[in-house]
Q: What sequence folds into this?
């Protein structure tokens, strides 16, 4: 897919990986729809418009079915199409499962798995009618490997991979692709806040002996959006942590 002039909606794009993904698509000349639950900094918006593209900000919670519907509808109304949907919004409530309560599990599931379903459910009919489009779901390395203290997060991200494959099969006859990215440890505010000891322990699990950058995930997203013959696939951006 040629991205110049196309419309890309990125959920959870106020900072971190989502912001990097939006930036990488803007560099390609795509118009960007940003999403977050709280207002997005004006500086972030200006940084995108500097690439000569149009930027729309839609505040809303992806776990809310009707809010997702409204975001998709407003995107279609503003730009006339949705060419790429990147489901990046996510959250975690890490605890050992013996200490995890129902609310911890449900909240994580609602955003990480139901959120992508909500967005896909409303955006897919538009893409099918266009007979073109790319859906990219941000999963996680722990969705493949599991992890201590992350049963809720890992289960939701594993669900994203299953959702990706199912949507890929349903959408393929109309030329719409659906793929996932499973990042490993990526340099974000979250990893920066970890102690040196914890960061060192994490690094020992990574064959490349370094954390990834948000741009590594963003570049994979752009690649998948252009890959017309790749669908139902998960790209591992994890430095070899899980093979």
A:
């Amino acid at each position: 897919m040629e991205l110049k002039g196309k419309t890309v909606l990125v959920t959870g794009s106020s900072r971190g990986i989502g912001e990097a993904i939006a930036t990488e698509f803007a560099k390609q000349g795509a118009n960007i729809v940003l999403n977050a639950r709280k207002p997005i900094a004006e500086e972030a918006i200006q940084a995108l418009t500097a690439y000569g593209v149009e930027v729309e900000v839609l505040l809303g919670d992806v776990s809310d079915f009707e809010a997702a519907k409204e975001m998709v509808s407003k995107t279609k109304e503003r730009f006339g199409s949705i060419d790429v949907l990147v489901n990046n919004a996510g959250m975690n409530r890490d605890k050992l499962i013996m200490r995890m309560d129902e609310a911890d599990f449900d909240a994580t599931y609602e955003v990480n798995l139901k959120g992508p379903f909500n967005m896909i459910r409303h955006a897919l009919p538009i893409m099918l009618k266009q007979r073109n489009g790319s859906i990219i779901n941000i999963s996680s390395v722990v969705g493949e490997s599991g992890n201590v203290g992350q049963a809720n997060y890992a289960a939701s991200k594993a669900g994203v991979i299953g959702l990706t494959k199912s949507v890929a099969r349903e959408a393929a006859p109309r030329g719409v692709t659906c793929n996932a990215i499973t990042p490993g440890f990526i340099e974000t505010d979250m990893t920066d806040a970890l102690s040196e000891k914890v960061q060192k322990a994490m690094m020992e699990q990574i064959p490349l002996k370094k954390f990834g950058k948000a741009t590594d995930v963003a570049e994979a997203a752009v690649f998948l959006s252009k890959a017309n013959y790749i669908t139902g696939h998960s790209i591992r951006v994890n430095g070899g942590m899980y093979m």
In short: The first strand starts at residue 7 and ends at 10.
